[in-house]
Every structure is written in structure tokens, then in C-alpha cells.
Amino acid sequence: MVKDGVMATIGDLVLIYQEESPATFARIEDIWADKKPDWYEVKLLLLQTPVVEVVWILREAYLNGEPFTMNGVKVRLEKVEAPSTRRRREEKAPGSEGAREEGKENQGKVISLFDRKKG
Length: 119
Known about the structure:
The protein is α+β, with helices and mostly antiparallel strands. The protein has a domain at 13-80. The chain is built from four helices and six strands, in the order ββββαββααα. The protein has helices at residues 60-63, 83-91, 97-100, 113-118, and strands spanning 13-18, 21-33, 39-47, 52-59, 68-70, 73-80. The protein has a six-stranded antiparallel sheet. The longest helix is centred in the C-terminal third of the chain and has 9 residues, at 83-91. The protein starts with 12 loop residues before the first strand and ends with a helix.
């Protein structure tokens, strides 16, 4: 999860909380200005069964994780990053141990799914 105030934007995965409980994941498909100043229309692909596309009208602060209410229900969006993406970003941060050891090979082992099917 991303908690450093990074705004969620097009293509990002977000976790939608309802009443402070995780409810579903969504991908932000598009964002465009609403007719009301400082509001945006945000097209979300709700990753549930069945997959549903919705458009919510939100302020930028809500894309930054600030809670809001929808039909009397407290809702909050939290940007999500894959653990490997977050780890790579932290390793390359200036002054981090990973940045000093950038020349070292990755110690992880790659397992081919195709090779596993053959055996």
C-alpha cells in the first residue's frame, strides 16, 4: 500500500474501503475534469465478479486517500503497489542499502511456469 500522499492516477490499482474495511479493488481507467471546478470524473474498473465499470465524481484530495462519504457510507481510496515494485523503488532510493549494492546480482530464483508444466 502507498501511504506517502502519492495521488492515484490513470492505470493505478486502488483498494476501496467502506467504513474503514477493505471492500474491493479497482483500476483507474480515466480521469477528466467535471463541470464543477476542482472536481473530477473518475472511471473505475471494479475488480470483482462480475467486473463493473463505474464513474465517480471526486476531488483530488479523495484520490490522495482522504475519506469521503457516498450515500452516507464512509469511503476511502488507497493506492496499491505490487510488493516487487515497492521493493525496487526502495532499493534505488538514495542512501539506501540497495542503492549502495546496486552492482550485486538479484539473489532471487526464476522458475519457469512452462518448464513446470512439462515435468
